[in-house]
Amino acid sequence: MNGWTRMLPLLAAAALAACGGPATDDAAALEGNGVSLRNLGETDVAAPAPQRFTVQGRLIPTPSDASSRYYLLRDRTAVGGTTIAIIRQEHAGRVAYARTEVDCARRLFHVLGVAPNRALAETEQAYDGPLRPIAGLPLRQELATYVCRSAGTPLAAA
Q1: How far is CA 40 from CA 28, 75, 79, 135, 137, in A?
Q2: Average pLDDT over residues 30-56
């Protein structure tokens, strides 16, 4: 991995900090160098969307973000019992990928990696900090609900 790909998540976080947009997820997500999933498709992390996707994924209902479409591409249970998911965001002809971790029992979520393609999202580090509560973050709640249901472990009640 070259130096540019190592710096990409840091540049994305800096770009996100400079972006405006809906405050519901952004302000809380950016605390502690978090990553805003809502604006990921508008950052330098995103790439032009291809004509066809190799992995179609399953559309995640996200009423809190009607301008983007989110797809669950893969989920797996980690050693500690959390769920790791690969999510694709499509926004305005661009696409970005995120590797997320969800603790369904404790209603916690964080982003592990972001990238312009699925392969890099699997390996890149997003520096999103530790698992954090999803209360007050509607997009993260919607994503966590879908991921947990897909993994067979429904999201615990609030």
Answers
A1: 15, 20, 28, 20, 15
A2: 82
pTM listed for this prediction: 0.79
- pLDDT tens for each residue of 4-38: 444 444 444 433 333 333 334 444 344 445 788 88
Q: Work out the mean pLDDT of the chain and round it to a whole number.
A: 83
In a domain, 157, yes or no: no
With b for 16 or more beta-carbon neighbours within 10 A and e for fewer, the 73-82 pattern comes to bebeeeeeeb
In a domain, 81, yes or no: yes
Domain total for the chain? 1
Q: The domain containing residue 12 runs over which residues?
A: 3-151
